[in-house]
Amino acid sequence: MSRAFADITFTPSVLAAQERYASREQNRRFELSPDQRNSITAMDAEFIRTRDSFYMASVGENAWPYVQHRGGPVGFVKILNERTLGYADYRGNRQYLSVGNINANERVCLFLMDYANRRRLKIWGRASIVHEGENPELFNQLNDQSLGIIAERAFIIHIEALEWNCSKYITPRFTQDEIREAVQPLVDEIEQLKTRLAYYEHGKQE
Predict the structure, then answer these.
(1) 3-class DSSP assignment, residue 168
(2) Which of 20, 64, 75, 88 could pair with 142 as two cysteines, CB 3.0-4.6 Å apart?
(3) For residue 102, which of 138, 147, 56 has the smallest C-alpha distance?
(4) What are the residue ranges spanned by the domains of the chain?
């Protein structure tokens, strides 16, 4: 048994590259691992539920890859079961590159990033597209009513492999909410100092 991601990605040309750059033995452990890592663990689930964006790669019929960024409210990517994710897809620039690619080739790869904590989860899967009239219950489960708009479609990702990546070279970046939370104690302290200063100045004037 081996890690599912190694079964997918360790092609003959990749193995040859590992041999050339002397990492074959280092990577062999993935081929000997008893844990396939093709279903969502509790740690994976916690991470996925707190994401507000991800990147998804698909491949066109001409073999050119395409990477799309998708964002939404925290938790917009739903865990349907231990092997399946889903998310609502809203109208964008109407080029439908990922949609068209997936209609021809269901294979996709997702990168879920946590820049602040320098973490990255990679997911390989097979994608399908669901429209509102095809499965209303599932579509409504994924569609975010708080946005006030109806999704054009929903993407369902059947997971084939998951793998965490090392933090090396991930530059920390922070959202507005993360920055606001970090600086709030300083803002509170400044307000307290301003109040104390105003009280002191008022006392001097009297």
Answers:
(1) coil
(2) 88
(3) 56
(4) 1-36, 37-173, 174-206
Element (H, E) at 80: strand 78-81
Q: How far apart are CA 78 and CA 60, in angstroms?
A: 26
CA distance 112 to 122: 6
Q: Which residues pair with 158 in a beta bridge?
A: 84, 126
CATH superfamily of 37-173: Electron Transport, Fmn-binding Protein; Chain A (2.30.110.10)
d(CA 200, CA 87): 56
- Which of 80, 79, 74, 84 lies closest to 114 in space, CA to CA? 74
Question: Cβ of 54: how many Cβ atoms within 10 Å?
Answer: 21
Extract long-range pairs of 60-64: CB within 8 Å, 24+ residues apart.
60/97, 60/100, 60/101, 60/104, 60/105, 61/101, 61/104, 61/105
Rounded (to 5) percent helix, strand, coil in the chain: 40, 30, 35
For residue range 17-41, list pLDDT tens digits in order.
999 999 999 999 999 999 999 999 9
pLDDT tens digits, 77-106:
999 999 999 999 998 889 999 999 999 999
Q: Rounded CA gap, 151 and 133, in Å? A: 12
For 97-163, the DSSP string reads HHHHHHHH--EEEEEEEETTTTEEEEEEEEEEEE-TTT-HHHHHHHS-GGGSS--SEEEEEEEEEEE
